[in-house]
Amino acid sequence: MATTRRKPLSRERILDTALALVDEEGIDALSMRKLGQALGYEAMSLYNHVANKEDLLAGILDLVLAEMEPPDPAGGLPAIRASALSAHGALKRHPWAASMLMSPSGIRPARIAYMESLLATLRGTGLSADTTYHAYHVLDAHIIGFSLWASTHGKLPEHIEDARAWFEEMIPVATLPFLHEHGLQHLDEGPHHDVSAFEFALDLLLGGFERLQS
């Protein structure tokens, strides 16, 4: 009788499967047992390729960081813009990763290399070391902070079936006219949806940096 051979385990396969699992179900859903089931192996078999869960989390964060393109230090502000969009895109595809980057476990070699490239590019535009100090923090906060905000922004409680009715009750136009107007913009179609808020703010930042160049 023919037997079905399981696809062999490897660190790469384990990390790819873990990344897909976390993207679909969230970081809290990840366990060695659940990951083993997804791979068709007992959880103990995974330890031949990953040391522990912390190693597993570091490995999938490295996969996300690999999707972020560091800026070319000789590329100036356009390179910084392209890099910021690349980083935000990765964090948008993997929304759980933004909070991990804010923790001590987020200090990975690829993260450090990205930081060095960003600092070098800022200095290469002519900004002083003191100005670069602030510019770097503002950019990093925008990339990670916006991505973290976007990962939860606009989500309604699960029990809400009629978003508009809930909105009209919670934010009445008579007492909260401007918040009501803003909220309707979320619910209704319009040209404002064609503008990326991340890029809008990024371009404001880069325009300010350009005026500060020596």
Main sheet characteristics: none
* Unreliable residue runs: none
- How much strand? under 5%
Please indicate the count of domains: 2
Number of helices: 11
Question: What helical percentage do the residues reach?
Answer: 55-70%
What is the name of the CATH architecture of the largest domain? Orthogonal Bundle
Taken from the alpha-carbon principal axes, the silhouette is flat
Radius of gyration (Å): 22 Å
> Which structural class is indicated by helix and strand composition?
mainly alpha
> What does the average pLDDT come to?
91
Distance between the termini: 77 Å
* Name of the level-1 CATH class of the largest domain: Mainly Alpha
Topology-level CATH name of the largest domain: Tetracycline Repressor, domain 2
Q: What string gives the helices and strands in order?
A: HHHHHHHHHHH
Number of strands: 0
Please tell me about this protein's structure.
- With 214 residues, the chain is mostly helical.
- It has 2 domains: 11-63, Homeodomain-like (Arc Repressor Mutant, subunit A, Orthogonal Bundle); 70-155 and 187-212, Tetracycline Repressor, domain 2 (Orthogonal Bundle).
- 64% of the residues lie in helices and 0% in strands.
- The protein has helices at residues 11-25, 32-39, 43-46, 53-65, 76-93, 97-101, 109-124, 129-150, 163-170, 177-187, 197-212.
- The model has no long low-confidence stretch (mean pLDDT 91).
